[in-house]
Amino acid sequence: MCLIWRQHRGQALWVGLTLASICALALGVSWSASHWLAGYHQWVKALADAGCPPPDAHSGDFHVRSAATCNTLRGLYSGAQQPAFVARYNFTVLVFEDGFPAALAIIGVLVGAPLVAREVEQRTQLASWTQSVSRRRWYVMKVTVSAASLAAVGLVAGIANARLQHTLGSGGLISSRWVWFFSTNLALVGEILLAFALGVAFGAWLRRTLAAAGAGIASFLVLLFATGWAVRTLTPTEQTIGPTFNVPAGGWGLSQSSSLGSVRYHPASQYWPLQLVFLAVLGIIVVGVLATGWHATRTRAV
């Protein structure tokens, strides 16, 4: 444990700083969006108190007390709540829905790729793997401690992103929490562990840190899309009844059947079970990938 800390304390520092930065950014945007919504609601009330037309009014009779006051108030916001909110916070889709998984994947790969490859590149494995501590114990301890730490990083990031998602949904930017299914909560735990495992395995086989990092990121993208598709489409679903394509509130719509006039969907109650299923599937892949990394570490010459 002392050796692990001495070797990886630099990594622990930059991972901690990165996690703090992205969580602070998510919570800051969440606070800003909440503040914007509160201000918008107060603005609508001020319009009503002044007898001004509401922002979404197209026609009608209103008892305007002062046209100048109405013009001043209407200049504060651009219009109805949902379009104005979307125009202001539309950047969050790219930054947080796509950026969080990408950032955690990079963290996982950069932590995992040097775990074995750096030992070989620096020739320190000649000492590390020939001491009283067995090569298996060395591998298991380093992988276990690193994976547990990264799982905590993924969980914290997932909770922070879920809070932001809830705020954005209140403003009408996100229609359902299913939209960010792979970017919040338990999904990020499995994703960062998958990236870490791929980095370790490719580092053990290729014995080059940069090559292992590149191969790990490419493989991560392929496996993420494959497992996401499998969990989304192959797990049990329900189907709308009758000639309607309207998915029940909170549901995750899948494919439409024009012949039956219905839609396959996951109901709202399946959100957390599917999160657990996705995490379990990624966990099985992680164990298998780390086993191949151990095979390369054990069988290849010192």
- Order of strands, main sheet, comes to 1-3-2
Mean pLDDT: 85
Helix content: over 70%
Query: Count of helical segments?
Result: 9
Shape: elongated
Largest sheet: 3 strands, antiparallel
Strand content: under 5%
Q: How many strands in all?
A: 3
Give the helices and strands as they follow along the chain. Answer: HHHHHHHHEEEH
Give the C-alpha Rg.
Answer: 25 Å
Give the helix/strand class: mainly alpha
Distance between the termini: 22 Å
Poorly predicted tracts of residues? none
Structure description:
With 302 residues, this protein is mostly helical. The protein has a domain at 81-233 and 272-299. Helices cover 70% and strands 4% of the residues. It has nine helices and three strands; from the N terminus they run H-H-H-H-H-H-H-H-E-E-E-H. The chain has helices at residues 2-49, 67-74, 81-89, 91-121, 125-128, 135-170, 186-206, 209-234, 271-299, and strands spanning 238-239, 252-257, 262-266. It has a three-stranded antiparallel beta sheet, with no helix packed on it. Helix 1 runs antiparallel to helix 4 and helix 4 crosses helix 8 (209-234). The chain is elongated and about 85 Å long.
